[in-house]
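Trying the structure run again after the queue cleared.
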Amino acid sequence: MNAQKPGMFAPALIGGAVAGVLSGIPIVGCLCCLWIIGGAMLSAYLLSKDSPLVLTSGDGAIVGAFAGIVAAVVHAILNIPFYALNLAFFRRVMDTMAEYIEELPSGWNTLLERSAGPLSLPWFFLGLIINSALYAVLGALGGIIGMALFGKKTPRPPLGTKNETI
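Done. Tokens:
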């Protein structure tokens, strides 16, 4: 009997989409790393649920890394409509900091105006590449954790028996 491992595409797509949406929403996105690990754990669960075979932690790392890359793409797409909202929030944070911190360097308030213009294509792709790498690492970690929690375990032979191969 030749059993094959199930496909990793659908679990990675589902887990990555959930993680990307949750990390792309402005207020909920503060827990971004947690959402990526959780989405990868969801991918590992979905993968192990449909598999008749015992999967390894390497399988969980692969499906988790794929889920992290999907999450980075979904997160980048969701950030496009929320760009102005995030920029306004960051300006309020900087203004509040200026009220309470007296020893800020001169010219700090113009830093935001110089760097925060309209969303440009090179910055979008640079952010996507950096997030893809970071989310893939976090996804691999979440996939390993998910496979350890939800994966099928190999049965151990009873104590006192020899494990002989033919």
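Helices lie at 9-24, 32-49, 57-79, 83-100, 108-115, 121-150. Worth checking whether this holds up in the mutant runs.
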